[in-house]
Recover the amino acids of this structure.
């Protein structure tokens, strides 16, 4: 891990940061609808559904939105967005590692547009598994592996 990446913290975002995160989301056609009501209100921030990556007390480099499902054994990942100048530097990987660590189910599930080749390659590199197609989307999933689990600091037994 590079020294710069070690400086990146992933933590719950605050509602005050929503406009900054909205600007980041607009950099990609795949995340530009982040203004969805589910993630725009105070409840999403209070429930810690929005995680932000930043250097210590700095401007957000990227964010992800998730929701822990009650009726399904996974955490749904809705958005991952990284500022254009910081893509390919491990910021997205750090965001997903934290999202997976926070999942009470130990499993992330997401929909990725079939045409989003960069995102699909990113998820494959992180060992997400293809589950099925759903219209214009691929459904992908990743479960905490014993290796990930052992190094996450999480003491749950598998």
């Amino acid at each position: 891990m590079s020294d710069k990446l070690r400086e990146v913290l992933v933590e719950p975002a605050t509602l005050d940061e929503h406009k900054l995160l909205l600007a980041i989301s607009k950099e990609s056609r795949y995340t530009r609808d982040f203004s969805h009501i589910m993630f725009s209100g105070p409840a999403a921030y209070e429930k810690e559904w929005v995680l932000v990556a930043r250097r210590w007390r700095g401007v957000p480099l990227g964010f992800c939105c998730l929701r822990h499902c009650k009726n399904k054994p996974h955490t749904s990942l809705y958005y991952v967005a990284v500022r254009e100048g910081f893509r390919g530097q491990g910021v997205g990987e750090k965001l997903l590692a934290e999202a997976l660590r926070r999942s009470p189910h130990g499993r992330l599930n997401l929909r990725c547009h079939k045409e989003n080749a960069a995102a699909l390659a990113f998820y494959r590199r992180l060992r997400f598994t293809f589950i099925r197609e759903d219209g214009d989307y691929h459904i992908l999933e990743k479960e905490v592996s014993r290796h990930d689990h052992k190094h996450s600091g999480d003491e749950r037994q598998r």
About this structure: The chain is about 30% helix and 30% strand. Confidence is low (pLDDT under 50) at residues 147-158. The beta strands are 8-12, 50-55, 60-68, 75-82, 107-113, 129-134, 137-143. Residues 91-102 form the longest helix (12 residues).
